Amino acid sequence: HPSIHPSQILLDEKQAPKFSWFRNAVLARSGEKSTMIYYMKLAETTIPLLKCNSLEELSAHDMFQKLKSASKKENFGYYAGKYYDQVVHRLVSKKNEKPPDTPGKAIEDS
Description:
Elements: H1 6-11, H2 21-50, H3 55-60, H4 62-69, H5 75-94, H6 103-109
């Protein structure tokens, strides 16, 4: 039933006996849903930040404040912070760097 939370189903061992296919299906489905929700929340938070043209613009963005205030004790706050450090911050900071001269660049210019 859609209105019943998976944790409620798992508490009822008559409905979802341990090691049953039904219990395993509920566990798998609830894990998939929480993973999907995490990535949707990550995308909603970080995609607007990737559109920033400078670190100053990024740090003033509402989504940066949301990310900064996310609890590091929760999965979203911890992993979203890591994603910000490893991906978003680096990509936005590189937007203002002059690209290095490469042999491919000289060929494209001629």
